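Every protein is a chain of amino acids, and every chain bends into a shape of its own. The fold becomes a row of whole numbers, each drawn from a learned catalogue of backbone shapes. The protein below has been through that process, and both of its lines are reproduced in full.
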Amino acid sequence: MTSRRRRLAAGLQSAEFARAYTLAALTATFSSFLIERLTSRVTLATIVAALAVTGLAVLAARREELSPLRFAPSSLLAFLALALISVLWTTDRAHTLAGWATLFGYAAIAITVGHVRDTLQTVRAIGDTLRWLLSVSLLLELLSGVLLDIPFTAFGISGNLALGGPIQGIFGTRNMLGFVAVIGLVTFAIEWRTQSVSRGVGVFSVALGGFLALLSASPSVVVLAAGVGVATGALTVVRHTAPARRVSVQWMVGALVAIALALAFALRHQIIRMLDAGSDFSTRADLWNQLLDFVAQRPVTGWGWFGPWPRGEYPFTYLNFLLNDRHQSALNAYFDTLLQLGWVGLALFLLLGGVAVVRSWLVASVRRSVVYAWTPLVLVTLAVESMFESFTLTGTVWVLLVLCALRAGQSRSWRETIDAAQTGTITTLRSGDG
């Protein structure tokens, strides 16, 4: 028995198993809609549970390599704790426990990947996964919309490729396809810049991501692309600034971001008309205005954690009744968090993402390798997307948020100082690190 345990532990600790686990976990999470559509929600839950349990076993086998202080961001643990504690005041304890189990399961997968793969390995794994899944999406869209001219209802594909879109691929909605395509573009560009893939593969990947982002016809893609473009330009300026002037430039960038956000809010109606997204925004505005009435009833704690809105549960069903619609979320991660976990939950959610952005930005601005730019650029994409959808609170996008927050905390955290004091090692960030 001891010999078997040792072999099992050695297998869980191996680099080969870490790579296989990462690819399996990413493929399953990014394909969650397709898995659920072709099988059932129970099958998807079983796969996620199996990956989470396996991940925890990997972490247990590697426990001597892990530092308890740097295991996971404090804000993430606090957010998970609040979601679980909300079972005390929720309107349905069974649904809350199920929603929390899903949240925890995906978080466990992300934490495992974050500890067994470094930044470059993570980028390569996500790049490989998205290359295949986006290629499959394009192939199925070609078959459905051009060659056969019939919708593939089993895959959730409408077959609008010949009409110029919108298309969904294997991701369920045009907005999700657009988001995944933008994440793919960021990842493919980093792969190309770090010479992790050949020039041919890099060109194909970027062209594939851009083509599918365009054909998704998602109004949010334009905003996502603009946000990522501005962030990339700002980060490039900071990275090429002399170290002596870098702090001043960082503050200048922060001030410009604040001004840009204020202007975007002030000119939001003109921007919406320019993007031809009026009907979409009108739907969201009506939902958010109605939602705030329910937030006012439980402003601090919210109505309890559910994740995606379950049918037949108050206040979600009543909200849809008032709006004569069938929303499955608040179409905004910030409003959804506010409704379900109140101002306390929203503060923790903003802390989780905000601290991760700042940490990863500071690391990317001083490290020589461009691979460190992946984390802040993905976090910016998540922050912008959260204004239009609630993807960030579940499934694939929640995995990305947790993974990026963990990666940012590993690179720059107050825990480093404590670890350094305990081990007698001084860890510093230098401009030439990479």
Q: What stands out?
A: Residues 185 and 210 are 7 Å apart (CA to CA).
